[in-house]
Design a protein that fits this description.
Distance between the termini: 80 Å
Helix content: 55-70%
CATH topology of the largest domain: Beta Polymerase, domain 2
Low-confidence stretches: none
CATH architecture of the largest domain: 2-Layer Sandwich
Shape: elongated
Structural class: alpha+beta
Radius of gyration: 26 Å
Strand order of the largest sheet: 1-2-5-4-3
Number of helices: 9
CATH superfamily of the largest domain: Beta Polymerase, domain 2
Strand content: 15-25%
Bound molecules: ligand 0O2
């Protein structure tokens, strides 16, 4: 293959990565808009660098012409979760999609690699549409927790630094760090319900505050300034008390006031 053709070969992979990043971010956004906990915390994607593709071909003893069949992770998507339990949910979401067809699953969570690496991999078929028509390509989706991602990012850069000759003491320390990451994930899972409750109530509070501020802003257009200032000051006093019940009741009162003004303006229109 001529060097300048790399761009052409990789083009559909770039398209697949771009599309899938948008799609998975949209999944996250949908959960957030439905005011639900999202099992996907972060989405990223990359197209493998030419040097890494060549390296993999060499490792597999494959020809350049076998590039697309032998290198399954030219297009790579990474989905990061907060908790180990979320990984299963994300895998189920992927399996439910019609635009992603699973070829193979690699569970390095149940059984970590010898290096200590933990992650769930899905090799899938995904079709992109270019001006040449549809093209089915392979994509590798890596699903892991924040803690697993932290470990693998560090380990990956050390692998790069030592180019396959990692000193034994570093390898041992990385293995110990991998065990610590595993314990951290287990520990976080045991307090998952509490953490999720806290995150939910933070989200709920932010939503109520934004409703209240919207109501106050709308009242500026219909009520007199003195009344709105009074409401604003009252809101701030309640806000400082950090009491969700009071915020909810205050929001309800504002809804009633806003409704009264709306009714009055409709009546005024009729008269
Ligand atoms: P990069 O730079 O991320 O692209 P196989 O084809 O099954 O024989 P392969 O392709 O190595 O073997 O599959 P595997 O084991 O599922 O690994 C694919 C990718 O997972 C790797 O791609 C890494 O991104 C990641 N990975 C696998 N093992 C490790 C590990 O021990 N440490 C870290 N940090 N990442 C790992 P590349 O091409 O190695 O790298």
């Amino acid at each position: 293959m001529e060097v300048q053709l790399w761009r052409e070969v990789l083009e559909p992979y770039h398209l697949a990565v771009d599309e899938l990043v948008v799609k998975f971010n949209h999944v996250k956004q949908q959960y957030q808009e439905a005011k639900m906990y999202s099992p996907i915390e972060m989405v990223s994607g990359r197209v493998k660098r030419v040097s890494s593709i060549l390296e993999k071909l060499k490792k597999k003893g494959a020809e350049l012409s076998q590039l697309e069949e032998k290198v399954e992770d030219i297009a790579g998507i990474r989905l990061i979760c907060q908790f180990v339990e979320d990984i299963e949910t994300v895998v189920a979401i992927i399996k439910n999609r019609q635009d992603i067809v699973i070829k193979q699953e690699k569970d390095y969570i149940t059984k970590a690699k010898d290096s200590g690496y933990r992650s769930y991999h899905i090799i899938a078929y995904y079709t992109v549409h270019t001006i040449q028509g549809p093209k089915q390509i392979e994509v590798e989706i890596q699903i892991r927790t924040l803690a697993m991602n932290f470990w693998s990012t560090i380990e990956h850069s050390l692998q790069y630094k030592y180019k396959g000759h990692m000193p034994e003491d570093i390898r041992d320390r990385l293995l110990r760090a991998a065990q610590a990451v595993d314990s951290l994930d287990t520990e976080m899972s045991s307090v998952r319900d509490e953490i999720m409750d806290a995150q939910n109530s933070n989200r709920q509070k932010a939503n109520i505050i934004s409703d209240i501020l919207n109501n106050i802003e709308n009242l500026y257009y219909v009520a007199n300034e003195r009344e709105v200032n009074k409401i604003q000051n009252e809101f701030f006093k309640i806000y400082l008390k950090d009491d969700m019940g009071m915020l909810k009741r205050f929001n309800k009162q504002l809804d009633i006031i806003a409704e009264t003004y709306r009714a009055q303006s409709v009546q005024g229109y009729r008269n």
